[in-house]
Design a protein that fits this description.
The chain has one helix at about 115, and strands at about 5-10, 15-20, 25, 45-55, 60-65, 70-75, 80, 85-90, 95-100, 105-110, 125-130, 140-145, 160, 175, 180-185, 190-195, 200-205, 210, 215-220, 225-230, 235, 240-245. By secondary structure, the protein is an all-beta fold. The longest helix is centred in the middle third of the chain and has 4 residues, at about 115.
């Protein structure tokens, strides 16, 4: 089914928020107690959470099912443990994917110093967690983490995670959806990247300030949802980071 070309700018301040003593979480889509029937997904992307977790705190063990969960840390570190025996410390530049499949339990804590023997730690962890629907349900749960070379993320759009055959190589983590890929870039003022062409695109600016061709300024926390679009140029005004989901299907196609 053909989709009309649209460019929909979503401002940071319009996101739903979950704020408690140890967590500052902002939700681009409906999440947990924040439900809006008009804002449940874009393309295949169901969750884009911008999270800050205080030291010595985090998400206790909880379940997931039939979801591809990609975590990208911007600052600090996050400790992952799950019921399949996988564990790891995620930090800036290290991409993580958890395939929930037929069911998995996991926890995420800002307590990496307990693994290194350090006695104190006060830095919060800032990360973006994104959920994409898999193209097959009930599969065996899985886990992957991979260093994305820092130099590759300086001034150009680089694939972080993908299930698309054209992006299938050992330089990105693999997700179980052949219609989706996540790209990222770290930009210095004046750096410009061109967005891919896709049926659906989701551009998120987790930090910094950029300008989007045809739409103007975007600040930290702003996002843009594109349909049947792409090719626009994104230019950094300040040191910035962007995350771009390229999607060639939507939930209704799965």
């Amino acid at each position: 089914m053909a989709v009309a070309e649209t460019v929909d700018v979503r401002r940071a301040g319009d996101r739903a928020k979950t704020t408690i003593s140890w967590l500052d979480s902002k939700h681009s889509f409906s999440f947990a107690d924040h439900y809006d029937p008009a804002n449940t997904h874009h393309g295949l992307l169901l969750v884009n959470n911008d999270d800050r977790v205080a030291a010595a705190a985090g998400f206790d063990t909880h379940p997931h099912r039939d979801m591809e969960i990609v975590t990208w840390v911007l600052r600090g570190s996050l400790v992952h443990q799950d019921s399949t025996g996988h564990s790891g410390v995620i930090y800036p530049g290290l991409a993580q994917r958890m395939s929930a499949g037929r069911g998995i339990l996991h926890s995420e804590k800002n307590d990496s110093w307990t693994l290194t023997g350090d006695s104190t730690h006060s830095e919060p962890v800032h990360f973006v967690q994104m959920w994409v629907l898999p193209d097959e349900s009930g599969v065996t749960p899985g886990y992957q983490q991979l260093e994305i070379d820092d130099e590759l993320l300086r001034g150009q759009l680089v694939t972080i995670a993908s299930g698309m055959p054209e992006h299938a190589d050992d330089t990105a983590i693999t997700i179980r959806n052949r219609f989706a890929a996540l790209h990222g870039a770290r930009l210095q003022p004046g750096d410009t990247v061109e967005l891919p062409q896709a049926r659906y695109l989701h551009l998120f600016v987790p930090r910094g300030e950029v300008t989007l061709e045809g739409a103007g300024a975007l600040g930290a926390g702003d996002a843009v949802r594109f349909t049947a679009s792409g090719g626009q140029r994104v230019t950094a005004v300040a040191p910035s980071e962007i995350l771009v989901w390229e999607m060639h299907a939507s939930l209704g196609d799965m």
